[in-house]
Amino acid sequence: MASLTALILYTIVLTASGAFAPGPLTFSAIIVGGRKGWKTGLSIATGHVIFELPFILVLGVLEAALLQLVKGAARIMDILAALFLLYFAYISAKPFLRGGHEFDGAGMPGSGLIDRHPLIVGTLLTGLNPYFLLWWMTAGYPIITVIMRGVVELGVLYGIHASMDYLWLTLMAGLGYAGSRLMDNKYYRGFMVGLSVFMALFGIDFLARGLLGVGILPF
Fold first, then answer.
1. d(CA 109, CA 97)
2. How far apart are CA 25 and CA 46, in angstroms?
3. Which of 52, 50, 60 is nearest to 19 (CA)?
4. Are 101 and 95 in contact (CB under 8 A)?
5. How far is CA 153 from CA 3, 9, 110, 156, in A?
6. What is the pLDDT of residue 109?
7. In angstroms, rounded to a whole number, what is the distance separating the alpha carbons of residues 107 and 54?
8. How far is residue 198 CA from its own chain's centroid?
């Protein structure tokens, strides 16, 4: 039981260091939440879990083979992730770059994917990120070794991990929605365009890693 307690603490600290860090999932939750409210954070987190849980279970069984597969496909995954991130940034910024619109935080024009399918956004931003997958194969692997012991361990450790993801992404979506309601249209427009620029930078970073093997961001 002592080892399980230690793993619980390890899971909390490790999850916080990853989930609470600025990244594509965090920015996407703020952007989509600003349009459709805090519940979109739940959808993005669910999309994240839809990919993550089967992945770590398969990793627990086929670690060596899966590690080689992800490493071998990392550059292709970088490029695919980059294309999606750049597309996401474009459709996120597009409504705010148009003149003559008053924004109320919902029903933005030209944003059908992120408005209607935040679950897909969460799944794609998880599954196409090779660094997230490699994180589970390295820093997160001690959690997997315990999860694979049985249903109780799976329920406790992954339940803690997933609940922190849900908490963070829902909070970010809620903050995005609050911003859409409280901020002046001019400042909200600038805020959302700024977030879209960050998403584009992540896309360019992934593209540089995929094509040149060198990223442009320091994290």
1. 11
2. 12
3. 52
4. yes
5. 11, 14, 44, 5
6. 43
7. 33
8. 13
| Residue 42, Cβ density class (10 Å: 0-12 exposed, 13-18 middle, ≥19 buried) | middle
Rounded to whole angstroms, the Cα distance separating 45 from 100 reads 34
Q: Nearest 5°: phi and psi at 20?
A: -90, 5
CB atoms within 10 A of CB 108: 24
Question: CA nearest 114: which of 197, 36, 193?
Answer: 36
Q: Provide the CB-side half-sphere exposure for 28 (13 A, CA).
A: 34
Confidence of residue 95 (pLDDT cuts 50, 70, 90): confident
Of 179, 24, 1, 9, which is closest to residue 89 (Cα–Cα)?
Answer: 24
Q: Cα–Cα distance between 85 and 124 in angstroms, integer?
A: 10
The answer, as to whether pTM is greater than 0.90, is no
- pLDDT band of residue 163 (cuts 50, 70, 90) is very high
Q: Which amino acid is at 192?
A: M
Rounded Cα distance between 203 and 197, Å, is 10
**Amino acid letter for position 8:** I
